[in-house]
Amino acid sequence: MDQMPNCPKCNGEYVYHDTIHFVCPDCGNEWSGEEVAQSSDEFIVKDSNGNQLQDGDSVILIKDLKVKGSSLVLKKGSKAKNIRLVDSDHNVDCKIDGVSLALKSEFLKKA
Question: How far apart, in Å, are the Cα atoms of 52 and each of 37, 55, 70, 110?
């Protein structure tokens, strides 16, 4: 782990790991690493305006985008319905004009 998590009980920042559990010296709380992994499984995807996106949302392109490996250009204002969020560098899977695409959320705004 790059950074120790804050204590879930008191939000203390001086947490240490004792090979089995995380321990907070401020309140004495102990918890396992599995609990930390479960809480970090949720990822948040935001559009270009900072609105949080969810599976099933509709989004609109904010600029023209060239599709790699193709002569296709997605036009600004194109709408994608029923998006699916994925945990990768291109974090939105969708269909625009019948073509399945993986897009970055920074080029989208929530419709």
Answer: 22, 10, 30, 8
Give φ, ψ of 106 to 5 degrees: -70, -15
Q: What is the CB-side half-sphere exposure of residue 10 using CA atoms within 13 A?
A: 12
Fold of 45-110: SH3 type barrels. (2.30.30)
- pTM reported for the whole predicted model: 0.62
Are the CB atoms for 7 and 24 separated by under 8 Å? yes
d(CA 99, CA 96): 5
List pLDDT tens digits, range 32-52: 766 655 555 467 889 999 899
The CATH fold of domain 1-42: N-terminal domain of TfIIb (2.20.25)
